[in-house]
Amino acid sequence: MNNSLWSDAIHRLTRNKAAMLSGFILILLIIAAALAPWVTPYGYEEMDFNNMTATPPSSDHLLGTDTQGRDLLTRILYGARVSLLVGFVATGVALIIGVSWGIIAGYAGGKVDQIMMRIVDILYGLPFIIFIILLMVVFGSNLWLLFAAIGAVEWLTMARIVRAQVIGLKNQEFVLAAKAMGVSNLSLFRRHLLPNILGPIAVYATLTIPQVMLLESFLSFLGLGIQPPMSSWGSLINDGVQYMEEFSWLLIYPGITFTITLFALNFFGDGLRDALDPKTSDN
Amino acid sequence: MLAIFVKRILLAIPVIIAVASITFFLVKLAPGGPFDSDKPPSPEVLKNLNKAYNLDASNWEQYVEYMSKLVQGDLGPSYTHVGRPVTELIAGGLPVTFELALYAILIALSLGIFSGVLAALKRNTLFDFIPMAIAMIGICVPTFLMGPLLVLIFGINLQILPVSGWGEIPGDKILPSLTLGFAYAAYIARLSRGGMLEVLNQDFIRTARAKGLTERMVVIKHAMQGGLIPVVAFLGPAIAGLLAGSFVVETVFNIPGIGQMYVKAALNRDYTMILGTTIFFSTMIVLFNLLSDLLALWLNPRSRDVS
Lengths: 283, 307
Description:
The structure holds two protein chains of two kinds. By secondary structure, chain A is an all-alpha fold. Chain A has one domain (3-41, 78-276): MetI-like (MetI-like fold). Chain A has eleven helices and no strands. The radius of gyration of chain A is 22 Å and the shape is elongated. Chain B contains 13 helices and no strands. Chain B is flat, with a radius of gyration of 24 Å. The longest helix of chain B is centred in the middle third of the chain and has 36 residues, at 86-121. By secondary structure, chain B is mainly α.
């Protein structure tokens, strides 16, 4: 791995205030979501019958309660668990498929490359959102199916990026030298190709996470994703919409949390891209 | 050029057939029949119902029948809207969704291209920063949050615009169209800014300026032609996105288009309706993607030469 590239990148990243603030917000959110059962004294289904639709900030419930007396902050934090988990797991699925697909296509070249990329082209033209909805309808809203389905959609761009990188690398001297020394294909990937394409992969992965979270919350908003009493940001916003005339905080707080998270992810991703590839930072 | 066009069009046909087939068998995999409910009908009634809808035939026979009807534009009967064919329901909702999408795309294009081109021309000034900051909001705030927030502000707090419906009260088309158009305006603004910046630095622009053309002519006649190719290429995916957006916007604003119909069918498990609308949407998306690809190919002189 090229150490100076990465230390340079980290140096540039730490000087980018927006990206650092975003990173800080994200870490805070991840910790709060992971430790949700300890951060909040309430359960996500726990109803407080004395405090139905408590207006925030109330003494017992910082962000108020919903129409069933459930603590909103608690539900947002548990929703964060679902949203972040979907974000990371589905992105992971997309990474594994996309990177392997792109490396194989780019490295093999010729007919194999043509066929593999043609498949990607065709899949690109398909209405995947509708297919995910169909899967949810047919097999029921299963959390793991949701992860797999979203991941299976988001790998296409990753495959294209990785392929282009591999094609650029595979004829460079250090790769030819490694080949001449009889390095096996597998360790050539692992030791020589993968470290060099890690930058674009990392950037694209951070930008995929918000896409995935949007997709999940979109489905949950329509009632096709996470099912009650479990909460996700999409389903909380949906609940909020139903009562927004009287209890606007039920819409506003989940909405703000979601928006801040998406902003943070996008700014962090942009910052990472600028840090790893200073050439593109102009536009 | 023509060869590429024909090849792409021919490629779209098997894709549509494959989508229809996969959808058909996926729906067949769904647990439970269409007539399962809290009060199951007696076995005889169920048998007659199955016979009436030809559900007692084998999956393969049903598939062949469905596909041969599909070619003739018949998508079968709806299970929940008794006695009404799916085609008729889609035809009823289509004009509404089409109108909504049209307004949204017009808002997105005019707002997006205007602010994107302006931002590129006045780079690093407030005319650049402010529209791009707003575009970032448009990209980060999802439609299903933007819609309700606009309703909360303009409909409930300020009470200046109607909060739901379509074509019932004057002005009720404004909020849905804005909601749907805003996100795409943001993407288009970013794309046209990027595209314009790239083009504005090129030699032919300098030549055009050197010829003594007015700045206005340089921008409109020369720079925009090349700078907006990314926007054209984005239109295909944008239409697919508009469709998904229409699910949300029609649900939020209670608009009787095919988007709301689709979401309701999905929630009620009206399988023939889901099957029909899925095939319909997929065909539309494949066609629009094809159209925008071909348009981008045709606009880009470099790809014109290759063939």
